[in-house]
Design a protein that fits this description.
Elements: H1 2-18, E1 31-35, E2 61-71, E3 74-83, E4 86-99, E5 104-108, E6 116-120, E7 128-131, E8 143-155, E9 158-166, E10 176-179, H2 201-204, E11 217-222, E12 225-229, H3 231-238, E13 243-244, E14 251-253, H4 258-261, E15 264-275, E16 277-284, E17 288-296, E18 301-304, E19 308-310, E20 313-320, E21 327-334, E22 339-346
Antiparallel strand pairs: 1-2, 1-11, 2-3, 3-4, 4-5, 5-6, 7-8, 8-9, 9-10, 11-12, 13-14, 14-22, 15-16, 16-20, 17-18, 17-19, 17-21, 21-22
C-alpha cells in the first residue's frame, strides 16, 4: 500500500512541475532586444548589407521582430538586426517562433534552412539537448547540454525560472543559462552570436547583480514593457558618464538638471514599434515644459517640436511617424537643463 501512495505522490509531483505557470518569451505584438556589442550576423534573403564590421566592437546593436511570415506552413516572426552606427542598413537575422504549449522556442536562419530548437523550458533536471554553435569555439562548445538545476531570479517582469545547463564533455566550458521569458542573457539567438567572453562591464559593475562574462543583453522589451534590464551593461555600451539608469529600459542625461527631469516619473512611446503614428505617454509629478526631439541612431536630428505643456498626472501627445522609414530612432524629451530619452522602432 505504501508503494501505491508513493507512486501517486510521485505522479502528482511531476505533474505539478509540468503544469506550473509558463511565462512566454515572445510577445505577439513586439519584441525588442538591445545588446552591448555587435553579434556575428547571418546573411539571408539576399540582404548583402548584413555585415557591421568587427563583431566584438562595443557599438551596440538591436534585434527586433518586425512581423510574421509562413515557412513550411508554420508561423514565424521575422527578426531584424540593426546597429546603432548604421541605422538604415537593415538585415534580416532570421526567423523565430515559440510553442507555448510545449514551452519551446525555435529558430531558422534562412527561409529554406533547417529549424533548430533554441530553448526548451519544459526540461527537467537531468534532461539534455544537443546545441550546435555557429562559432564552435570560445565560450561554448557544441554538444549535449545537461540541465543540472533550475533556480529563480528576479527581473523587472517578476520572478522567473533560471535554467543552468552544462556540457559535461567539455569541462572547461562555463554553465549555459536560460531565463524564462527572456532567454539567454548574452544573446537571444545565442548559438548564432559571437560566442565569446563579455566586455569590461563584467568587472566594473558594482550593483550587486550576479553576472557572467557573456552577459551582453542590456534590455529586452515587450511592447514597451520592460522584461529584462542590465543598467551596467547598457552604460558600458553607451560609454557616456552622463547617463544614469534606474532599473528601466529608459535613460536620462544627468549632465543637465536632475531636478528638472525628475518632474517626469515615466515616459513611453506607445505603440512601439509604431506604424504611421504613435503617441507619447508622460506621467508627471510637477508642472513643466519640454520639447520633443527625434534623432536617427547616428545622431541626426529629424524633428523638433514647439514646447509642450506637461501637467501633473498622465499626459498624451500624438506623434506622427509616417515620414520615417523602417528603423530604430531616439525620442528625446528635452527640458531647459536636462533630457529623457526613449528608443522607438518604426515599421513603415
Amino acid at each position: 500500500m505504501k508503494k501505491i501512495y508513493l507512486f501517486i505522490l510521485l505522479i502528482f509531483g511531476v505533474s505539478g512541475v509540468k503544469c506550473q505557470t509558463y511565462y512566454p518569451m515572445l510577445d505577439s505584438v513586439s519584441n525588442i532586444w538591445y545588446f552591448t556589442i555587435n553579434v556575428q550576423p547571418l546573411r539571408v534573403m539576399q540582404q548583402l548589407n548584413c555585415n557591421y564590421g568587427n563583431f566584438n566592437s562595443v557599438s551596440s546593436n538591436v534585434l527586433v521582430t518586425i512581423g510574421d511570415t509562413l515557412l513550411n506552413a508554420i508561423d514565424y516572426k521575422i527578426v531584424m538586426q540593426q546597429e546603432y552606427n548604421q541605422p538604415f542598413n537593415d538585415c534580416v537575422f532570421g526567423f523565430i517562433r515559440e510553442d507555448t504549449t510545449l514551452q519551446r522556442v525555435y529558430f531558422q536562419d534562412t527561409q529554406s534552412g533547417p529549424e533548430q530548437l533554441l530553448y526548451d523550458f519544459s526540461m527537467l533536471q537531468g534532461d539534455s539537448m544537443y546545441i550546435d554553435f555557429f562559432n564552435n569555439f570560445g565560450y561554448f562548445t557544441s554538444g549535449n547540454y545537461v540541465l543540472d538545476s533550475i533556480g529563480s531570479v528576479t527581473i523587472p517582469a517578476g520572478v522567473r525560472r533560471i535554467f543552468y545547463l552544462n556540457n559535461h564533455n567539455a569541462p572547461s566550458q562555463f554553465p549555459l543559462e536560460w531565463i524564462e521569458s527572456v532567454g539567454h542573457p548574452g544573446h537571444t539567438i545565442y548559438n548564432k552570436s559571437a560566442n565569446f567572453w563579455g566586455d569590461l562591464f563584467t568587472w566594473i559593475c558594482v550593483d550587486n547583480v550576479s553576472r557572467d562574462f557573456y552577459q551582453l543583453l542590456t534590455c529586452y522589451e515587450h511592447n514597451s514593457q520592460k522584461v529584462y534590464f542590465d543598467s551596467c551593461a547598457h552604460a558600458n555600451a553607451v560609454n557616456n558618464w552622463c547617463f544614469f539608469y534606474a532599473d528601466s529600459c529608459d535613460y536620462f542625461n544627468i549632465c543637465g538638471s536632475v531636478e528638472e527631469v525628475g518632474a517626469v516619473s515615466n515616459f513611453a512611446v506607445s505603440p512601439n514599434p509604431a506604424q504611421l503614428s504613435s503617441q507619447l505617454i508622460i506621467d508627471a509629478n510637477l508642472e513643466t515644459r519640454a520639447e520633443v526631439v527625434i534623432f536617427s541612431m547616428d545622431g541626426r536630428q529629424l524633428y523638433k517640436s514647439e514646447p509642450i505643456e506637461i501637467h501633473p498626472g498622465k499626459n498624451k501627445f500624438p506623434l506622427s511617424t509616417v515620414q520615417y522609414r523602417h528603423g530604430t530612432y531616439v525620442v528625446e524629451l528635452k527640458f531647459k537643463d536636462g533630457s529623457i530619452h526613449k528608443k522607438m522602432v518604426v515599421l513603415n
